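#help-structures
NK: newbie question, is this the right format to request a structure? protein is HAAAP family serine/threonine permease
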Amino acid sequence: MSNIAHKATSTAGSSATTATDRREDIHRAGRVANKRFETNWTISLFGTAVGAGVLFLPINAGLGGLWPLLIVTLLIGPMTYLSHRALSRFVCASPVPGEDITVVARKTFGEGVGRVITVLYFLAIFPIVLIYGVGITNTVDSLMVNQLGLPSVPRWLLSGLLIALMMLVMLASQRIMLIVTQWLVYPLILILLGVSLYLIPGWNLKGFGGVPSFGELAMSIWIIIPVLVFAFNHSPAISQFSVALKREYGAGASERASAVLKRSTLLLVIFTMGFVWSCVLALGPTGLQAAKDQNLPVLSYLANEHGSPFIAYLGPAVALAAIASSFFGHYLGAAEGAAGIVRSMVDRDGSRVSDKNLNIAIAVFIFLTTWLAAILNPSILSLIESIAGPIIAIILYLMPMYAIRKLPALEPYRGKLSNVFVTVAGLVAVSGIIYGLVA
């Protein structure tokens, strides 16, 4: 009996020691933070989010009126931070440093469900890559014709050159991609701030009407939230971001990821929503509707309509920098999802297709499909609302919440009020998109 008690005491002591060691590892990893490494990722995550979604956000958000815009401004910070933190925790839960979201999903939910999640992950990101092909082509064409006075280049040629240029940066290396993203994002932050401040004298509340009824307010918020989810989404980069932090910090990856995500979310809310409010108040409902009809980012429309040379040239510059920086992060996610589909369904052990050949094939596929979308020029907002939005909400908001209930490594995060908030936000986003499609 005493031997049994001694063994139990030893086991308990060993478990306590292990838990203590784990906490010490996490604390040590968090204390010795690589500031430059984390700053690079903060900027890259910001750049991934500030793309076509943000440039089109003033259009849909502003058309709903000022009161819904005020409420979603208060909601978007917690929504963005908590959802992306949960997704990062899901990837960091794997003890194996190199495992990305597709591998973790298969190990967590089993091969069948894991494959479904991998396909959904790809479908959530790939349409956004197509959107950027359309967006950068329209923006550059508008700049050449309206600001530079040049003849319009054939769409097939212009789109092919622009998409090829962005993909060359991506295919060079992740390090070069991070450097180029920083070159784009730092000026982008300053220009967003400059444009927001410059538009202040043109603010006008006419046309927005009074306080809506509760039903009208709730309906407007319901419709705006899916666009917000897309506009602030940087989930395509979260998997590789989490993998990079696991290599850097080991057991402390999840804690450091939360710190980085907090900073990137703060940047997004301050600069993006400030920009959105300034554009909405400067354009008014009529200008917002005209920009939507022309399928242009709001700044490209401002550049065409505003008489100031400042807006005429900085507007397209912001649009180009935002689309290019966001394209890089979304390409990472789309390529990761495509590789996960091939590995899980066709070539599990990698014996048929080498990683190099697979990456080349994926790059060719993404280039050709993005080029085709840019030539066809579909409605960007329709693509956002009908394809990307619902799947993003499922992968970013709902899947990590289910994983917290299922995965033993995520047990410490159960029973939190933030989980309820993220789940409700995800359900509202999915239902809002479905309603918009049916209506």
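mod (FA): yep, format's fine, and the tokens are attached above. Residues 1-31 have pLDDT under 50 and may be disordered.
NK: thank you!
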